[in-house]
Amino acid sequence: MRSLSASALPGIAAVVLAAGMSAQARVAVASEARGPLAARIVQIMHRLRDVQRFGAVSVAPDGRTVAWTVTRKGAGHGGHADRKPRSGNPGEILQLADIDGTRVRTVVIPDSVRSCHDSSLAWSPDSRVLAFLSNCNHGKADREQLDVYEVDAKATRARRITRLHGFVHELTWSPNGSMLGFLYVKGDLHPIAAVSATRAQVGVIGRAGVEHQRLAVVAAAGGRIGRVTPHSIFVYEYDWSPAGARVAYVGAPPPGRDNWWVAKLYTQTLGGPAHVLLDPSTIAGPLHGLQIALPRWSPDGSRIALIGGLMSDQGATGGDIYIVSPEGGAPVNITPAIGITPSWLTWTGDHALLVSSFAGGSTRLSLLTLHGRSPATQRRLFTVASSVGDGTFASAVSASAGHNVLAFLDSTFARPPEIVSVRLRTNAAGLPVGVLGPPQAITRVNAGVKPMWGKAVSVHWHNGGFNVQGWLLLPPAYDAHEHYPLIVYVHGGPSWATRPSWPWDGYGPAPFAAMGYFVFMPNPRGSFGEGERFAKAIRRNMGYGDLRDILAGIDHVEAKYPIDNNRLGITGWSYGGFMSMFAPTQTHRFKAAVAAAGLSDWESYYGENSIDKWMIPFFGASVYQDPRVYAKSSAINFIRNDKTPTLVVVGQDDGECPAPQSFEFWHALRAMHVPTELVVYAGEGHGFHKTKDLRNVLERALRWFARYLGGKSSA
Length: 715
Known about the structure:
By secondary structure, this protein is an alpha+beta fold. Strands 1, 32, 33, 34, 35, 36, 37, 38, 39 and 40 form a 10-stranded mixed β-sheet that branches. Strands 26, 27, 28, 29, 30 and 31 form a 6-stranded antiparallel β-sheet that branches. It has a 4-stranded antiparallel β-sheet with strand order 2-3-4-5, with no helix packed on it.
């Protein structure tokens, strides 16, 4: 995809570049910011910033100690569906505590030259040492550089064991504790992910600037860095075999930003050649042509479990669970027709898995018992109507070696994030069979923060042969005798699902509810939470079945709540941005739209984006092989039907939904004399990382909806 500069964008006079706003534009925004609406927005922003944010959590193998990273109060940061960078955040710290939350101590890095960003918390197998990544000893020139540090479980003073030069993440210990492994891009600090901002595409395209991410190792005490995997394979995730002599990993040829969607499963002995164990493009059966993630060796080394399914992004994991022999052979689906979406797993024995899943819009933890090549049996341990993880791509649980203690980040729309623990009851074989009481809070740093929006209600309806679920967020203290506008917030993906979570300091549904709107967050077909049949139901039919589900859901909530059908809005980011462009071309029910990082023309998009490989599983072929299937889902082909005033926002360096897609849609609406505005944000990728930009998007969206939907009105 061609990197965009301000001079390369057509019609730039109608665009505000947030990082380079003119003096006149700044005056206009300042003038617009006065009044009650602005005051309410400021209140909401301060409430979001009151919350301390957790970045990672890890429980020691012995289940006695837990570690986490957290920002100090008032040091909140923005983020979207991205790996929220916290470099330069003045308040992030790493802490240790006993599993009951007592004896909290803060880790200190000697000779720190700046505030720290810590990540990839990894306990040694004997629970004595916590390894982690940190940028504490780097100045402004290389402030993004992370190195490996270690701290004793009973101490607070950390020590640095590497001096790396490149992007590093996914830190783990080898099973015997002698080595540390991590994914490493030597010589390049730029994060490699579809949601990150793209760099300028110059030179010989496809050859210049191609990153190579490999599995690297270092001795536990430090020393020379060794690279394990070959230069020709970009490694996305990995796992050690029980003996530590082999690794399994998901990888593909570079460039890594584009090829995750066609990645294969490899195995390799340390120092030996790589072997393809599983190639979804060549196998028969339900996994054919789909994505794979989270490979995990069984304790006896005889099997590898993984998740395979229709997934939109690396990290947004969901699908069925497959078992494959490390010696080869066809994978076995042990969760056919399970009706939920597994997203994380760990072995609890040679024949059992602990699994976290999307279950509707909630999170379920289950024990799956294997029965050879037959479907596994499921024992439900607990279900929580909350997000397990940070509410974006993180959905993992940290488990002790005996799997009797779990720790995870938990939050809802009503409850800010905290670290909680759950103790599981195990049987004589050491397998979890139940829960010893409800989740217990380890931290209580956000106990005094209350929401400014109303309660969240899980709603269920039927449409097109499917059970569909969504969340309705109510305005605070709404009056049943008034009529209220409703905003539909469509999640990204499409392979994802909205679950209750405390909002980040930026764009999202909760601020809309705080401003007095009902906010409907559907999980229509294509989402996780109802099994693979549901997730695959939009293949070759993007935008149609999911829109019908959304419209049926609107009818359902309108029958129960005082919503004015004549004042409906729609918004969303990424795939939600696409739906905010496409839906108004198919129905006139929406009176206002805000399309964020969306796409308007699937045909031109195929040649513009930097991740075209993701489209083939969803459309069945490339645009060059079957252009009609792309054309039928392109909003631009139905633009004459669109009468909906639409605010369009996008990052200048978005490689996943490039800015020309937003320009094309904005240009078409102007030609159709539909009220519209386009705002392009300098230096932002698909997932905005600048807090000021996220706040600016939110402010503009709130003003747009206030202008075209208004507030509550008398019945």
